What we know:
Layout: E1 2-6, H1 13-24, E2 29-33, E3 56-59, E4 63-65, H2 68-76, H3 87-102, H4 105-110, H5 126-146, E5 154-159, E6 162-167
Parallel strand pairs: 1-2
Antiparallel strand pairs: 1-3, 3-4, 5-6
Helix pairs in contact: 1-2
This protein binds glutathione.
Amino acid sequence: MLELFIANKNYxxxxxxxxxxxxxxxxxxxxxxVPFGDKMEPNPFRNFSPxxxxxxxxxxxxxxVWDSLAITEYLAERxxxxxxxDASIRAWARSxxxxxxxxxxxxxDRCTMNCGLRVxxxxxxxxxxxxxxxxxxxxxxxxxxFGEPLSCWAVIHRCGRIFRACCIPCTDL
Length: 173
Ligand SMILES: N[C@@H](CCC(=O)N[C@@H](CS)C(=O)NCC(=O)O)C(=O)O
């Protein structure tokens, strides 16, 4: 049985990515939730994750997958519904996911994940505005092209001036 190590769901958007994906696609797994602690040394995440970060997927004795995108690809090898069936839509989805995985630095720095808080931002730096404009573009493009936001990640959804984390499963178009 696959084991998915994650941290607190309120704080760890990286953890939620494979967690949501696996739940949505009904891929069986054992959830191992290891809460964030104080900056403990040695880092307790190192007990299961080579990078000392979550999420980390463990498949038996031999396989550890310690990055959310690598986990997605590992699951896609055995679960075709992870990515859209159509090659062109799949390319779009992979690009959007890659962009989300490696970009949006200003948004990440300014709007860290905490589902227990409603955050009102009083000053928007040009870098943050740029990230938000690109996020809107990505979201609207997906709505226009596919009729729904298409992403297998939790994405930060801009809702007026309030930010919410919301998640949209990837659909098999
Ligand atoms: N690129 C990694 C990022 C993982 C990551 O930064 N995880 C954070 C939690 S959300 C973490 O484990 N932080 C603990 C630390 O840095 O010590 C992924 O996609 O899995």
